[in-house]
Amino acid sequence: MFAQIRAWLILSRGSNLPTVWSNLVAGWLLGYVYTDRFPYANGLLLSLLGLLLGVSLIYVGGMILNDAFDARWDTERRSTRPIPAGLVSARSAFIVGGLALFFGSWFTVAASLGGHRGITFVLVALLVGGVIVYDRWHKGVSWAPAVMGLCRALLPLIGFFAVGGLIDGPHFRGWNLVALLAHPCVLWLLTFSITLVARHEASPGTPPRWAEWLLYLVPVPLLLVLVLPDVHANPRAALIGCVLFWAWVYFSNRRHALPAGVGRRVADRLAAFPLVDFAAAGLFYYNVGFMRSGTEGSIEVGWAVFASRLVWIMPFGAFGLTLLLRRWIPTT
């Protein structure tokens, strides 16, 4: 019984779930401060919890389907994986993975605040479509890392629109739109780079050196957008997040030499997603200040204080939780 439970946990790559939560909440917080109305209803927190449950199921479902589609390849090259080892059948993996995608999609759309479920549905459909395309055809194709990157980039956008963020609203136009899209683009680039390196975990050879150096350039756009015209932000969060990301990557490279250290490097890169999310919080910190300056004791100020704490509790908590969970659940 214990062996089967562990097998399903291995299939789920559940240790990476905190990074998914961090990606979603980073976009959710920006949508919270860039909205045409102030969503301070009692259902706001319940909506966030529903979104987190939904994207968690989508992620877990995608990971399980990944192994289901790779069963034959794993039998030849990674016979210790749960399906080749006989701990989980491919049929069961397809059923559980498919159900997780279905219910995850439903929860994510249903948890969106009223009036924004249409665009959330479109984004979730793109996410699920990307997950299925990657799982089915990622072996041996050059475009697979780009599809995987799209899946990560959609997470903050889902959070942004689900809470009511409007890119055509009166406070979010022009260069500010570029600043918003910088975070999803950085997540796409980071995922692309990680996927390139991860391909060598169970294959001969070592990752290209340019893919390793690309990691150091990944968060730079989050700093550059802060100097764009009409973009108001607190640069401290962006700088702290970038410095922590660079330090983490540098010491990871020192600890895990190639080619034997590919798997460890990939695990460290995955854990670093929340550091990038915190680097994107400069826009949030500037705008939430106006909400916190309202009438003391009001619902608006109360939610602003809660959000101001969540913006650092979530990424750093997710980072630590990922490091803790990966002791028992492999990240790849």
SS class = mainly alpha
Mean pLDDT: 87
Shape: globular
Q: So how many helices?
A: 15
Q: Whole-number radius of gyration?
A: 20 Å
Q: Main sheet?
A: none
What is the distance, rounded to the nearest whole angstrom, between the alpha carbons of the first and last residues? 23 Å
Indicate the percent of residues in helices: over 70%
Q: What's the total count of β strands?
A: 0
Helix-strand topology string: HHHHHHHHHHHHHHH
- What is the beta-strand fraction? under 5%
Structural domain tally = 1
Q: Spans of 5+ residues with little confidence (pLDDT < 50)? A: none
Explain what this protein looks like in three dimensions.
- The chain is an all-alpha fold and 332 residues long.
- It has one domain.
- 71% of the residues lie in helices and 0% in strands.
- It has helices at 2-12, 17-33, 43-69, 71-77, 90-110, 117-137, 144-162, 175-198, 209-217, 220-224, 235-255, 262-271, 273-279, 282-292, 299-325.
- Helix 2 crosses helix 7 (144-162) and helix 8 runs antiparallel to helix 9 (209-217).
- The protein is globular and about 60 Å long.
- The mean pLDDT is 87.
